[in-house]
Fold these 3 entries.
Entry 1:
Amino acid sequence: MSACILVFLDLITKHLAVTHLKDQAPVVLWQGVFELRYLENRGAAFGILQNGRMLFLPMTIVFLILILYVFIRRIPCERRYFGMNVVAVLFFSGAVGNFTDRTINGYVVDFFYFCLIDFPIFNVADIYVTTAAGLLILLCLCYYKEEDFERVLPGWFHADEK
């Protein structure tokens, strides 16, 4: 259910960007720092691999199947694994949001722009994926132990045997 809400929010913001930003001057929210600027991204994250749609679509399907398998079948429904569930939902939602755009339009609508640092233009789905990646790194470094990962994906993580 939460993934549906997140995907809906992503798609709604993209629709609003198309409706209010396409063929318009950027909307400056903080002069010299942050603005809303319409962009049709035909590449992957942050515009890399332009025009790689035929590569991205099957890769995304495989990624979504993997995330669903891990989320539904492997991550225990226990409080300890709440963070891992959040990571899975964020990755899934971001992938579905951009996959939907790429499938329907042939490109992904991006519209957030940090002009202060000239950061690549991005969207809400990108925020989900980036947040999930950062959270996963933090959880791996500070919270979960090897045994936790072994429980989710048996055989993938082995303790050093001496």
Note: The two ends are 45 Å apart (CA to CA).
Entry 2:
Amino acid sequence: MKRTLEFVVILLLLNNNLLFAQVSAQLDSNTMLIGDQMNLILSATTSKQSTVLFPTICDTCIEGVEILNKTIDTFSTNEQLVWKQTLRITSFNEGNYTIEPFAIYDQDSNLLGHSNALQLQINTLPIDTSANIKDIKAPLSEPITLKEILNVVMWILLVAIGIGLIIFGIYKFSKRKKTKDISLKSKPTEPAHIIALRDLEQLHQKRLWQNGHIKEYYSLLSEICRTYMYNRWDIAAMEMVNEEIETSLQQIGLEHHIITMVIKDLQACDLAKFAKHNPLPDENAAIYKNMVDFVNNTKETIANNNEIQH
């Protein structure tokens, strides 16, 4: 019997891991309110040459307890190394529970020991049945944060952009439809230049700019010119900006100096209509004469065989 005890002591001395391993388990408290959280700490103290393998514990392996997360830390003390695994736990079931001992091994699968069993009591809030039932508390008021303000501003901008795109789409569609309607409108039987020259003469007789009606004068002058382009070449000039009109006139092959002059005069009309520009009397007369020359220089010519020459 004595030899047997000596043999066991020798084995223990040869295995430092077993000799110096100390395994324990502890809770922050033995009681916890339902839904609260606390730490369950498994610790093992070994020699510095050892590596501790903590048991694999699933989230619901412990009866009545749920594991939220796990962390492992180590620190040295003298010739020993302390290993700690912290389990953050919670519970939603009232009652008394026993946390059974955990088996902890080293890297060579040698059993270092079993932790101690723990008792945990889960309590609920006490209910005073004698008290009157109270209304639910109103939500707490919180100050509006800058982030919330920026979110509201961002949504307002997005809605405004969306509305703007819708309005722009409706405008483009209606403009295209109006242009199409104009192109399908039947043309007058008289030649385009006859109508334009007659309208220009009637405008001249009204003496609008001489009586201070500058905007009305240039509005009618621009309209006569644009209508002539439609009747003469099917150019929907009433719906076009000056750059589009210039491109259309270039495509039908008009001479450069004619195009330059009429575009310049149309721009002058726009300035008087929209920018409240007040041209000098000489400018008024010159622009009118340019419009007349434009019509005469681009009008249709009738050949002897009554065919219209373009």
Note: The first strand starts at residue 22 and ends at 27.
Entry 3:
Amino acid sequence: MVSEQPSRASQVLLLAAVALVGLNLRPFITGIGPLAADIGAETDLDLKGISLLTLVPMFLMGVFAFAGPFL
């Protein structure tokens, strides 16, 4: 009979994968702030456009977080 319980090694591997994905996303989320003036100058975005650049990734992560358990 095959056990339905995940092994300890697979749990640790999953936790490590989640941590690595989180570390990989951190520069993407925080990278816009210091570059906001340069991005605005290059693209002619006003403050509303630049604020959307910082809002949209956070908003989408919040919206799609509910899909995580199903995935």
Note: DSSP finds three helices and no strands in the chain.
